[in-house]
Design a protein that fits this description.
Layout (H helix, E strand, L loop, with lengths): L1 H28 L4 H18 L1 H7 L3 H27 L11 E5 L3 E2 L2 E2 L1 H16 L4 E5 L10 H11 L7 E4 L5 H15 L6 E6 L3 H10 L4 E6 L6 H18 L2
Parallel strand pairs: 1-4, 1-6, 4-5, 6-7
Antiparallel strand pairs: 2-3
Helix pairs in contact: 1-2, 2-9, 4-9
């Protein structure tokens, strides 16, 4: 039992330190966002709990505080389980490469340059465009915090440099959320096509599940195709996505 508690305490300290370091690193190299703040907060809580493990357990051994501690355990287990689900779901591509249109969801820019996660999405879109030359490509994303141009504008420029013809690109540059990505993209695609059309969605693996749900809510019967992310962004991105999925379950946006 003592060894088990020591192991649990060590794991808490290690995970807490990883979240804090990852959040600080991501804040330094990318735009400040909710994921970094959540990771920093969770990391601090886990690190403090691990360091003062015995003292906290002694003072939360009875009554309401004990219930609160077990609820915190349950919450942590839920985050781990949801992260595992999102990771597995995000690898299960079902695009047929016969869709009429592809929606590439925007991500952060550094000034006017695409971030590496967004570059991965666009590389996947360029690959798709080469395999399905009849599909149009919707680049979707407005101008966010610490960005000097709309994401769609930078995405279009990236695809043009990758050899995708300009006439195949539709630019949606007003959205500021995944929900709006699909709402505004559907308006443009409805105008582009005379009748029914099929759609594929491209985003990073952690984002596939929620993107698929929001695409369905917007009226798309969409397939999906995942792009990878850098290994060192996993803690921040998956924690932020867990919060976003829970928000979606509550508010459906």
């Amino acid at each position: 039992m003592i060894r088990l508690k020591t192991l649990f305490r060590t794991v808490l300290i290690a995970i807490g330190a990883i979240y804090i370091l990852d959040a600080l690193f991501m804040s330094a190299v990318a735009n400040l966002n909710t994921g970094n703040l959540l990771a920093l907060l969770l990391g601090a809580v886990l690190l403090i709990y691990g360091i003062f493990f015995n003292w906290i357990n002694r003072h939360t051994g009875r009554g309401f505080l004990r219930i609160l501690r077990y609820l915190a355990y349950a919450g942590l287990c839920f985050i781990v389980g949801l992260t595992a689900f999102l990771s597995i779901y995000g690898q299960m591509d079902n695009a047929t490469y016969q869709e009429d249109a592809v929606i590439v969801l925007g991500a952060g820019l550094s000034g006017d340059q695409v971030s590496l996660p967004l570059a991965y999405r666009l590389d996947k879109a360029a690959e798709y465009a080469a395999l399905n030359p009849d599909a149009v490509i919707v680049v979707s994303g407005g101008q966010g915090f610490q960005e000097t141009i709309p994401e769609a504008e930078a995405m279009e420029a990236y695809l043009l440099r990758s050899g995708v013809p300009a006439e195949r690109i539709i630019k949606e540059d007003q959205s500021h959320s995944t929900y709006e990505n699909f709402q505004f993209s559907k308006t443009l695609l409805d105008q582009h096509f005379d009748g029914a059309y099929t759609t594929a969605v491209i985003t990073n693996n952690f984002h596939i599940f929620r993107a698929s749900q929001l695409a369905r809510d917007a009226g798309f019967h969409a397939t999906h195709l995942h792009a990878p992310i850098q290994w060192y962004t996993l803690p921040v991105n998956y924690l932020r996505e867990c919060a976003a999925v829970m928000k979606y379950w509550i508010f459906r946006t």
